[in-house]
Amino acid sequence: MSTLLRLATAGSVDDGKSTLVGRLLHDTKSVLSDQLAAVERVSRDRGLTGADLALLTDGLRAEREQGITIDVAYRYFATATRSFILADCPGHVQYTRNTVTGSSTADVVVLLVDARHGVVEQTRRHLAVVALLRVPHVIIAVNKVDLVGFSATAYGRVQEQVRAVAAELGLADVQTIPVSALDGDNVVDRSTRMPWYAGPALLELLEALPGADDPAHESFRLPVQLVVRPQSAALDGASVDYRGYAGQVASGVVRIGDEVVVLPSGRRSTVVGIDLGAVELAEAHAPQSVTVRLADDLDISRGDVLAAADAAPTPVSDTAAVLCWLGDAPLRPDARLLLKHGTRTVRAIVSSIDSRLDLDTLAPVHTDSLSLNDIGRATLRLAAPLPLEPYAVSRRSGSFLLIEPASGATLAAGMVGDHDVVSAAGVAGDETGWDF
User: Fold this and answer.
1) Residue 113 to residue 125: CA distance in whole angstroms
2) CA nearest to 435, candidates 365, 388, 348, 351
3) Bridge-partner residues for 246, per DSSP?
4) CA–CA dist 220, 255 (Å, integer)
5) pTM of the model
């Protein structure tokens, strides 16, 4: 059985992301014949001699008219050894919020850099987002090497720029590949026009990468989505009085007989049953969606979290966090918002905005507001305690959204800092050296 890899692409405008994705889909034979025929027809209408493979992902009419990617386009493809879910993220700075969305669940991000221009501000912004989101693997595709004569010198120059920025951000697993998405060099098959490059093609590397950290290695967490009320239910042919707590296991493993704690109340009980539909299981692991039955009749509602009793986080009412601000209006101190963590939403107030990341110097600068696409550090006060964990410990339990109460619009993606060390280093890991 092939393993699943969640892949996201990012980069600046016109760096060739959509063309690269289209080339991957085309060369892995993941495009239906009628789709390819439609792309060829539109390409001919535009006066092109060959198929514009970027059209395979630029599905929105506005994108096709403007020649840019606006929304996150999700595509699915597979090879003999692996299945992929691919998110083609937009490149324009105005749509950095979509890059945050596409990268938040990615196992690997492929960041495109134009071989002619090298690292630009948007490249640095995307690398900063990748570092904050703790994406396990980063691949830099140095694209359009055909436009620099397949020069090893030009590629090496960009490679050194990337390494310098990655080192400043604390990104350890960064690999670079020279590619020509237009012609397919080093995308699916190794190129014969770059004898100086001895590494794998992009698809070879994607097939060989290890999967994301197994959430089953983390402590058990299950945010309750639905309380299944007492009723007569048939489980394996037996009729029982039923009360269960349904949700998706966010991390870890739970087994019958395990002691769990309900957060934020702190009440404890023992697991007496785990149901997957009408089938009773002996254990469940992330990311299965199951119903858990407990030995005691506790007051549990949607938004509560079932956690391993021996490794449960302490609910907090104040938290330091790094925010990727996605709202059109600036964020200022004393703003009153909603914070969504797992299946629970509570009111929150911005106690302070402490700093913003300068994407040119990658250093913190003092600020009292965050504007669209800014990345900054803030302190939040919650109306009710939540079992938040440092993002460095768990990408799932350490992330949240900030929401506009009136409209329901998403305003920020947040990553919880270390409650003992109120610094950005507590979010992305001390190894980043960030201190803002």
Assistant:
1) 13
2) 365
3) 226, 291
4) 10
5) 0.74
Residue 267 CA to its chain's centroid (Å): 32
Answer CATH for 3-212 from 3.30.230.10, 3.40.47.10, 2.60.40.10, 3.40.50.300:
3.40.50.300
Q: Which tokens go with 381?
A: 């006060």
Element spanning 428, H or E: helix 425-428
Helix then strand then coil, % of the chain, to nearest 5: 25, 35, 40
255-286 pLDDT tens trace: 999 999 999 999 999 999 999 988 999 999 98
Q: What confidence tens digit (pLDDT) does each residue in 117-147 have?
A: 999 888 888 888 888 788 889 999 999 999 9
DSSP 233-260: EEETTEEEEEEEEEEE--BSEEETT-EE
Task: Give, in words, the CATH class of 216-311.
Answer: mainly beta
Q: Beta 3-11 vs 108-114: how paired, if at all?
A: parallel
DSSP 180-224: BTTTTBTTTB--SS-TT--S--HHHHHHHS--PPPGGGSPPEEE-
What is the SS3 assignment for 81? coil
- Hey, what are 177's tokens? 């590949």
**Contact between residue 129 and residue 96 where contact means Cβ atoms under 8 Å apart:** yes
**Residue limits of CATH 2.40.30.10 in the chain:** 216-311, 316-432
